[in-house]
Design brief:
The chain has 242 residues and is α/β, with parallel strands linked by helices. The protein has nine helices and six strands, in the order ααβαβαβααβαββαα.
Length: 242
Amino acid sequence: MSLDLPAINARLHDASAEDITRFAADTFGDGLVLSSSFGAQAAVMLRMATLVKPNIPVVFVDTGYLFPETYRFADELSRRLNLNLRVYVPQITGARLEATEGRVWDKGEEGHKRYNQLFKIEPMQRALRELNATAWLAGLRAGQTDHRAQLRVVDRQDGLHKIHPILRWTTRQVHEYLKLHNLPYHPLYDLGYKSIGDTHSTRAIGMGEDERAGRFGGVVQECGLHLPTTETENVSAGSAGL
Protein backbone atom coordinates (compact mmCIF):
# COMPACT_ATOMS: atom_id res chain seq x y z
CA MET A 1 0.00 0.00 0.00
CA SER A 2 1.36 3.39 -1.02
CA LEU A 3 0.18 6.34 1.05
CA ASP A 4 0.81 10.07 0.71
CA LEU A 5 2.43 10.41 4.13
CA PRO A 6 2.89 14.21 4.09
CA ALA A 7 -0.79 14.69 3.25
CA ILE A 8 -1.93 12.14 5.83
CA ASN A 9 0.20 13.65 8.57
CA ALA A 10 -1.13 17.11 7.72
CA ARG A 11 -4.69 15.79 7.92
CA LEU A 12 -4.03 14.09 11.26
CA HIS A 13 -2.07 17.00 12.74
CA ASP A 14 -4.85 18.02 15.14
CA ALA A 15 -6.49 14.60 15.44
CA SER A 16 -6.90 12.93 18.80
CA ALA A 17 -4.95 9.81 19.65
CA GLU A 18 -8.19 7.84 19.45
CA ASP A 19 -8.91 9.17 15.96
CA ILE A 20 -5.38 8.33 14.81
CA THR A 21 -5.84 4.79 16.11
CA ARG A 22 -9.18 4.57 14.30
CA PHE A 23 -7.52 5.79 11.09
CA ALA A 24 -4.96 3.01 11.40
CA ALA A 25 -7.61 0.34 11.96
CA ASP A 26 -9.77 1.59 9.07
CA THR A 27 -6.81 1.89 6.70
CA PHE A 28 -4.92 -1.33 7.41
CA GLY A 29 -7.59 -3.68 8.76
CA ASP A 30 -6.27 -7.13 9.59
CA GLY A 31 -2.76 -6.05 8.62
CA LEU A 32 -2.51 -3.88 11.73
CA VAL A 33 -0.64 -5.11 14.82
CA LEU A 34 0.28 -3.48 18.12
CA SER A 35 3.57 -4.00 19.94
CA SER A 36 3.88 -3.71 23.70
CA SER A 37 6.77 -4.19 26.09
CA PHE A 38 4.35 -3.96 29.04
CA GLY A 39 6.43 -1.12 30.36
CA ALA A 40 5.52 1.69 32.72
CA GLN A 41 2.63 3.20 30.75
CA ALA A 42 1.71 0.31 28.46
CA ALA A 43 -1.96 0.29 29.48
CA VAL A 44 -2.62 3.48 27.50
CA MET A 45 -2.08 2.06 24.02
CA LEU A 46 -3.40 -1.37 24.96
CA ARG A 47 -6.75 0.08 25.98
CA MET A 48 -6.91 2.58 23.13
CA ALA A 49 -6.15 0.01 20.44
CA THR A 50 -8.41 -2.75 21.74
CA LEU A 51 -11.37 -0.39 22.04
CA VAL A 52 -11.07 0.35 18.33
CA LYS A 53 -9.99 -3.14 17.19
CA PRO A 54 -10.68 -5.66 19.99
CA ASN A 55 -8.86 -8.63 18.41
CA ILE A 56 -5.76 -6.75 17.26
CA PRO A 57 -2.66 -8.96 17.66
CA VAL A 58 -0.52 -7.62 20.50
CA VAL A 59 3.12 -8.61 20.00
CA PHE A 60 5.07 -9.07 23.23
CA VAL A 61 8.76 -9.84 22.79
CA ASP A 62 9.80 -11.85 25.84
CA THR A 63 13.58 -11.68 26.10
CA GLY A 64 13.65 -13.96 29.14
CA TYR A 65 15.38 -11.19 31.08
CA LEU A 66 12.29 -9.24 32.12
CA PHE A 67 11.35 -8.39 35.69
CA PRO A 68 8.96 -10.78 37.46
CA GLU A 69 6.68 -7.76 37.89
CA THR A 70 6.57 -7.30 34.10
CA TYR A 71 5.29 -10.84 33.54
CA ARG A 72 2.62 -10.39 36.19
CA PHE A 73 1.68 -6.98 34.77
CA ALA A 74 1.31 -8.52 31.29
CA ASP A 75 -0.92 -11.26 32.70
CA GLU A 76 -3.05 -8.69 34.55
CA LEU A 77 -3.60 -6.49 31.50
CA SER A 78 -4.17 -9.49 29.25
CA ARG A 79 -7.02 -10.64 31.44
CA ARG A 80 -8.48 -7.19 32.03
CA LEU A 81 -8.41 -6.09 28.39
CA ASN A 82 -8.92 -9.55 26.87
CA LEU A 83 -5.80 -9.14 24.75
CA ASN A 84 -5.02 -11.21 21.68
CA LEU A 85 -1.49 -11.63 22.99
CA ARG A 86 1.20 -13.06 20.72
CA VAL A 87 4.38 -13.83 22.65
CA TYR A 88 7.62 -14.12 20.68
CA VAL A 89 10.91 -15.31 22.16
CA PRO A 90 14.52 -15.25 20.88
CA GLN A 91 15.84 -18.21 18.93
CA ILE A 92 18.75 -18.47 21.36
CA THR A 93 18.35 -18.77 25.12
CA GLY A 94 19.96 -16.39 27.55
CA ALA A 95 21.84 -19.26 29.13
CA ARG A 96 23.41 -20.21 25.79
CA LEU A 97 24.31 -16.61 24.96
CA GLU A 98 26.04 -16.08 28.29
CA ALA A 99 27.87 -19.42 28.03
CA THR A 100 29.19 -18.74 24.53
CA GLU A 101 29.58 -14.95 24.41
CA GLY A 102 29.24 -13.72 27.97
CA ARG A 103 27.17 -10.76 29.10
CA VAL A 104 27.30 -8.98 25.75
CA TRP A 105 25.19 -6.06 27.00
CA ASP A 106 28.11 -5.08 29.24
CA LYS A 107 30.44 -4.72 26.23
CA GLY A 108 29.64 -1.20 25.10
CA GLU A 109 27.56 -0.06 22.15
CA GLU A 110 28.46 -3.02 19.91
CA GLY A 111 27.52 -5.41 22.69
CA HIS A 112 24.15 -3.70 23.04
CA LYS A 113 23.61 -4.00 19.30
CA ARG A 114 24.45 -7.70 19.35
CA TYR A 115 22.08 -8.37 22.24
CA ASN A 116 19.26 -6.27 20.81
CA GLN A 117 19.50 -7.95 17.40
CA LEU A 118 19.24 -11.44 18.90
CA PHE A 119 16.77 -10.84 21.69
CA LYS A 120 14.53 -8.03 20.46
CA ILE A 121 14.81 -7.16 16.77
CA GLU A 122 14.83 -10.68 15.32
CA PRO A 123 11.79 -11.85 17.34
CA MET A 124 9.86 -8.69 16.44
CA GLN A 125 10.68 -8.98 12.74
CA ARG A 126 9.63 -12.64 12.84
CA ALA A 127 6.35 -11.66 14.47
CA LEU A 128 5.60 -9.05 11.82
CA ARG A 129 6.27 -11.60 9.06
CA GLU A 130 4.24 -14.41 10.59
CA LEU A 131 1.30 -12.13 11.34
CA ASN A 132 1.37 -10.73 7.78
CA ALA A 133 1.57 -7.23 9.21
CA THR A 134 1.34 -4.23 6.90
CA ALA A 135 1.23 -1.64 9.68
CA TRP A 136 2.44 -1.38 13.25
CA LEU A 137 0.94 0.62 16.11
CA ALA A 138 3.43 1.73 18.75
CA GLY A 139 3.11 3.90 21.85
CA LEU A 140 6.26 5.96 21.25
CA ARG A 141 6.38 9.56 22.45
CA ALA A 142 8.49 12.36 21.00
CA GLY A 143 9.85 13.40 24.39
CA GLN A 144 11.44 10.03 25.11
CA THR A 145 14.52 10.02 22.84
CA ASP A 146 16.18 12.10 20.12
CA HIS A 147 15.13 9.56 17.51
CA ARG A 148 11.49 9.62 18.56
CA ALA A 149 11.43 13.42 18.47
CA GLN A 150 11.99 13.20 14.70
CA LEU A 151 9.19 10.74 13.97
CA ARG A 152 5.89 11.49 12.26
CA VAL A 153 2.50 10.29 13.50
CA VAL A 154 2.28 8.07 10.42
CA ASP A 155 5.67 6.93 9.17
CA ARG A 156 7.42 3.98 7.57
CA GLN A 157 9.96 1.53 8.94
CA ASP A 158 11.44 -1.42 7.08
CA GLY A 159 8.67 -1.47 4.48
CA LEU A 160 5.81 -1.24 6.98
CA HIS A 161 3.70 1.74 7.94
CA LYS A 162 4.24 2.75 11.56
CA ILE A 163 1.55 4.67 13.47
CA HIS A 164 2.27 6.58 16.68
CA PRO A 165 -1.06 7.80 18.12
CA ILE A 166 0.39 9.31 21.32
CA LEU A 167 3.57 10.69 19.76
CA ARG A 168 2.86 14.27 20.89
CA TRP A 169 1.53 13.37 24.31
CA THR A 170 3.25 14.63 27.45
CA THR A 171 3.88 12.56 30.57
CA ARG A 172 1.02 14.49 32.19
CA GLN A 173 -1.40 13.47 29.43
CA VAL A 174 -0.41 9.84 29.90
CA HIS A 175 -1.03 10.12 33.64
CA GLU A 176 -4.41 11.79 33.09
CA TYR A 177 -5.51 9.06 30.67
CA LEU A 178 -4.50 6.29 33.08
CA LYS A 179 -6.30 8.00 35.94
CA LEU A 180 -9.43 8.74 33.91
CA HIS A 181 -9.82 5.11 32.88
CA ASN A 182 -8.58 3.59 36.16
CA LEU A 183 -5.65 1.91 34.47
CA PRO A 184 -2.52 0.75 36.29
CA TYR A 185 1.09 1.75 35.88
CA HIS A 186 3.71 -0.97 35.88
CA PRO A 187 4.24 -2.09 39.52
CA LEU A 188 7.85 -0.81 39.52
CA TYR A 189 6.87 2.70 38.42
CA ASP A 190 6.33 4.00 41.95
CA LEU A 191 9.73 2.62 42.94
CA GLY A 192 11.49 4.97 40.55
CA TYR A 193 11.56 2.82 37.41
CA LYS A 194 10.11 5.17 34.81
CA SER A 195 11.27 3.27 31.70
CA ILE A 196 11.30 -0.49 32.15
CA GLY A 197 12.98 -3.18 30.06
CA ASP A 198 15.33 -6.01 30.90
CA THR A 199 16.66 -6.47 34.43
CA HIS A 200 20.26 -5.99 33.29
CA SER A 201 19.59 -2.72 31.44
CA THR A 202 17.12 -0.98 33.75
CA ARG A 203 17.58 0.95 36.96
CA ALA A 204 15.53 3.32 39.04
CA ILE A 205 16.20 7.00 38.34
CA GLY A 206 16.94 9.77 40.78
CA MET A 207 15.21 13.09 41.36
CA GLY A 208 15.45 15.31 38.27
CA GLU A 209 16.77 12.60 35.93
CA ASP A 210 15.19 12.08 32.53
CA GLU A 211 12.79 9.11 32.47
CA ARG A 212 15.04 7.25 29.97
CA ALA A 213 18.18 7.78 32.06
CA GLY A 214 17.66 4.45 33.76
CA ARG A 215 17.98 2.43 30.55
CA PHE A 216 21.01 0.80 28.87
CA GLY A 217 23.57 2.26 31.28
CA GLY A 218 23.60 5.50 29.33
CA VAL A 219 25.33 3.79 26.37
CA VAL A 220 22.40 4.01 23.94
CA GLN A 221 18.90 5.54 23.92
CA GLU A 222 17.05 2.89 21.89
CA CYS A 223 16.75 -0.90 22.13
CA GLY A 224 16.63 -1.13 18.35
CA LEU A 225 13.02 -2.22 17.84
CA HIS A 226 12.00 1.22 16.64
CA LEU A 227 15.02 1.95 14.47
CA PRO A 228 15.17 1.14 10.74
CA THR A 229 17.18 -1.94 9.84
CA THR A 230 17.41 -1.46 6.06
CA GLU A 231 20.43 0.34 4.64
CA THR A 232 18.33 2.87 2.72
CA GLU A 233 16.37 3.91 5.78
CA ASN A 234 19.50 4.06 7.93
CA VAL A 235 21.08 6.47 5.46
CA SER A 236 17.90 8.55 5.48
CA ALA A 237 17.82 8.59 9.28
CA GLY A 238 21.49 9.55 9.43
CA SER A 239 21.00 12.47 7.07
CA ALA A 240 18.17 13.66 9.31
CA GLY A 241 20.46 13.61 12.34
CA LEU A 242 18.72 10.66 14.02
